[in-house]
């Protein structure tokens, strides 16, 4: 797929740590949804959930032969890690960060911080999946 694709990703942890989920939505620039998924990941933290959402989304985009992506999230931590502005210190996050960086080599990519309002659909998907426990 040669056009730029938008990927919203979000994690949710009820209790932090608590029942957690990762969710992402892959869509065209015109808003047409190509794929969306919420994945229950068990007991985890919000930051781990955010990274898992990113990794699941990148794997799916690679599977779909997408070449150019614009990542959208409200996670300043993930953004600043990926842009090299923050060091990754957490032992739980380091392997996830490395996996995400490796996957990003498959794409021409950029990442943008967006408002909670823009994240509403993917946030609801992540929360509902975490709450359902499956």
TrEMBL record:
InterPro entries: RNaseH-like_sf, RNaseH_domain, RNaseH_sf. Residues 1-131 form the RNase H type-1 domain. One of its GO terms (molecular function) is RNA-DNA hybrid ribonuclease activity. It comes from the Bacteria. This is Ribonuclease HI family protein. It comes from candidate division WOR-3 bacterium.
């Amino acid at each position: 797929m040669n056009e730029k694709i938008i990927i919203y990703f979000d994690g949710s942890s009820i209790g932090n740590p608590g029942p957690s989920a990762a969710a992402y939505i892959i869509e065209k620039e015109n808003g047409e949804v190509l794929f969306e998924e919420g994945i229950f990941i068990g007991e985890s933290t919000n930051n781990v959930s955010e990274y898992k959402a990113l990794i699941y989304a990148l794997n799916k985009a690679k599977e779909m032969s997408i070449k150019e992506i614009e990542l959208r999230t409200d996670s300043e931590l993930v953004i600043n890690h990926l842009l090299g502005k923050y060091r990754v210190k957490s032992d739980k996050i380091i392997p996830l960060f490395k996996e995400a960086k490796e996957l990003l080599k498959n794409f021409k990519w950029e990442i943008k911080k967006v408002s909670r309002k823009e994240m509403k659909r993917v946030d609801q998907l992540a929360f509902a999946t975490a709450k359902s426990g499956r």
